[in-house]
Amino acid sequence: MTPIETEVARLEGLIGQEVGTSNWITVDQAMIDSFAETTQDQQWIHIDPERAARETPFGGSIAHGFLTLSLASRFAYDCFAMADGQVMGINYGFNKLRFLNPVKAGARVRGRFVINSVKQRNATDLLRETGLTIEIEGEETPALIAEWLGLAVFGPAN
Q1: How many CA atoms lie within 13 A of 103 on its CB side?
Q2: Cα angle at 32 between 70 and 99, to 5 degrees?
Q3: How far apart are CA 76 and CA 82, in angstroms?
Q4: Taking residues 18-38, what's their average pLDDT?
Q5: DSSP symbol at 60
């Protein structure tokens, strides 16, 4: 079997199973402010903790939903290694994404991954759909859930 065929077979055996839980990351105000600066999303609920404490039900500022989502890449590095013969991984998009609970400044978050499906698209490309849940420490409701698509690219078969 080629390396891509071996990886498809391995992942097919994991469909429906949790395959990784990342380390916790603290989403502090400095991270939120940096993200706001980078994305030019300066909404006060993110960058003005005093006003957010007074005028929102959150008790302070909250992370941007897209900041929380962007941490998915960091979580994936904690949970997945490149397969034998794989030369790169590419973010391919999402089938579904729901923001369920805001992440308050100072909260810790982590990612949990489940293999939903895998498909060999051609001789070099493997498409994997992963169920992603980003949990907030101490909260029942996660920050978000998503069906994340990743493309694993393998070197040409010899």
Answers
A1: 28
A2: 50
A3: 11
A4: 98
A5: S
